[in-house]
Design brief:
Strand content: 5-15%
Shape: globular
Strand order of the largest sheet: 2-1-3
Helix content: 40-55%
Number of helices: 3
Order of helices and strands: HEEHEH
Number of domains: 1
Structural class: alpha+beta
Number of strands: 3
Oligomer: single chain
């Protein structure tokens, strides 16, 4: 049963991986090298979670957990564990990523 689930995940995720890879490549970014970083609050701004976009997608799909990112606390960056605006990926918003990830999770259901 677990093999069937794994093969289904690969079948659905592979086209998504290719689409995201092409989109990010247009911005000069590999999705294994772009990070979704979350801070604890806007005052202290300590990064508490940092994952590659690939790891984020795989974890959320595996857990069937829909993302609910807060734009003020979560962003997409070129470096892990940073919230430096200079390192933010400006052409891919966290809300656009959330929407695409939600659609992908729906496909897996």
């Amino acid at each position: 049963m677990e093999e069937k689930i794994a093969s289904e995940a690969v079948r659905v995720l592979e086209p998504a991986h290719q689409r995201w890879a092409k989109k990010l490549a247009a911005y000069g970014i590999e999705w294994e090298d772009a990070y979704i970083n979350t801070i604890n609050n806007v005052i202290e701004a300590k990064v508490i979670v940092s994952r590659t976009l690939l790891d984020e997608v795989l974890q959320r799909v595996k857990d069937k957990e829909y993302p609910t990112y807060d734009q003020g606390l979560t962003g997409i960056f070129t470096t892990p564990y940073t919230f430096d605006p200079a390192l933010r990926v400006k052409k891919l918003s966290v809300m656009a990523f959330e929407k695409k990830l939600t659609l992908l999770i729906d496909k897996m259901a």
